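Please, does this match?
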Amino acid sequence: MSDVNHYSKIASELGVKNDQVVSTAGLLDEGATIPFISRYRKEVTGSLDEVQVAAIRDRLQQLRDLEKRKEAIIKSIEEQGKLTEDLEARVLAAETMSLLEDIYLPYKPKRRTKGTIAREKGLEPLANQIFAQERLQPETIAKDFVDEEKGVQTVEEALQGARDIMAEWVNEDAEIRKNLRKLFIEEGKFTSRVIPGKEQEAMKYKDYFDWEEPIKSAPSHRVLAMRRGEKELFLMLDTGPPEAAALEVIEKRVIKANNLCAEQVSLAIKDGYKRLLKPSMETEVRLYSKKKADEAAIKVFTENLRQLLLASPLGEKSVMAIDPGFRTGCKLVCLGPQGQLLQNETIYPNEPQKKTMESGALVKYLVERHQIEAIAIGNGTASRETELFFKNIGLPPEVLIVMVNESGASIYSASDVAREEFPDYDLTVRGAVSIGRRLMDPLAELVKIDAKSIGVGQYQHDVDQTALKNSLDDTVMSCVNGVGVEVNTASRQLLTYVSGLGPSLAQNIVAFRNEHGPFKSREDIRKVPRLGDKAYEQAAGFLRIRNGANPLDSSAVHPERYDLIEKMAKDMGVSVEQLIKDDQLVQKIPLSKYVDEQVGLPTLQDILEELGKPGRDPREQFEIFQFQEGINEMKDLKVGMELPGIVTNITQFGAFVDIGVHQDGLVHLSQLADRFVKDPKEVVTVTQKVQVTVMEVDLLRKRIGLSMKSDPFAKATQENKSENPGKKRKTKKKEENESMAEKLNLLKQKFGK
């Protein structure tokens, strides 16, 4: 199958036109990035968005990998001298890797098995006779195969060897494997049990001590939890359908008679299923369910990460940042509008030193000296006490005091990136700098940290790490290019994610900027060593130059369209700068006049939108948030309290909310809204400010139950009861049994025993 066939298949699967897939694949093969294609090549792709372009990329790679495997299999079978036209056609027609491997299994080089040993003893003809299931006496025909020299001592040994061979035939039957695979997925169950004697150690897996759930409907978080419990040797996990159902699938295809030979075949089927097919199918289905669970968990992670990266920035302001603490004090740094470190100090406003006066005097002096406009306080240990200190020392009312989520700041402070930026400062200073910069621009700072350390995932260490990294990289790249990057202030890490650049060119840009000073125009970027025309084409539209020589350099308009805009301005009788400053004039541009073979209405509409807001940050405006005063620790919480909070993480089973007590509370799926909620993303986003009610406080296990319902203590409706499906089925079964028992009692009373 050529790429031409791949294109039509992908177009059909994604519901797009064949030409769109062909054009997009061509751009991807030329090295174009997803952000560039979706933003600047709309006429070529038919305005496909980032999600669609990524889907084409991923599916095309899958199909090409399948094609390579087919070629390797055909070559292998051909070298064995066993390739026929029919077999080659079956290989080429296989649409999935599983089906392809099923076809190849009988020809796959294998280690020495029971079947191969039986063949070596000359028992294959006996297996053929029995497998035909004619009216023969197996023991009688087996006598002819008893041969001490070949190691066959008795009739039973001969029959056993024949059954071993037949078991392998059953195992290698592609149709049987296909039907069994379907049965395992459609009717199979996860059955989890605690390992005897591990009950106390495994308490965190208590829900799975005696658990059963259909494979096809098990949610990602439970699949990953059970697998982790098994890996940690706390749980025993079985995967599969009832054995009788599996044997029936095989017997329907293999058993052709009802005689003594068929009985031998039946014995071979049972052995082949238990010894070969079940372990193989279980492995496959485990991989299938794991992949499905990984995809769901990775999707949750990437969506959370996107929301966190695109959180509202405070912007370029002078900031004082605090990494709070008790015994070791609070690390304090003053940052300039571009995030540069101006000064660092340590203050001791909290217990045990409690140097409130000295600390307050120093803070007020630094606020005045560096013209501080906002104070960022990390939300870790001593954060609420430190926040209270800052509110009570008499700072100017215009100075904002903001609590900042510091997840991952410690990872950054110990990283090579932090050491490179601040080689002469210790971890605590670097951590405080990171907290301050997060307030100013979350995206620019968070790209320096391994995304897995930011704390917005679900079982991130259990999922496929390569798939996770690729998905997170796509998300970061999408966010960075969606916002745009100021080339004269961006860090190497931020520039790395710009379309067409990568680590090497990002480093070259920073080095060139340090040596030659700020870039005055986008055209100057071409002077960077090793940054060729292709990289410039991919990157230029996403790089911004504020107050540059060309006013368009601060916008998302690509330089390849500058001539077009100059023509528009000329036609309107104004300069480009005048055009940009006059929104009413921009709206009067007759777009249809400028449509040609290269530029269509989609690109022209993007240009018009950008001219109306050149260089404007697409993220939402920053809004200040305050936790409830006086609620600083879990022991301060009381059931029924209504508190403000910030969503910090979203999972498939609910949302975690920071309410300012150093322990996030969980709003379960069933408590997110007054209506039935299937997916938390319908209701909340990461960094969203919400109002919650405290439902439960467990100090021992450090668990807080929260609700976002308007009347959370009202009796839950049946629709909003979010029992686990496995448990729900058990309850239903119990009800059925009780109902049946009642009916039997009535019958006994009426008719006697």
Notes: The longest strand covers residues 642-651. The chain has a mean pLDDT of 90. The two ends are 70 Å apart (CA to CA). DSSP finds 30 helices and 15 strands in the chain.
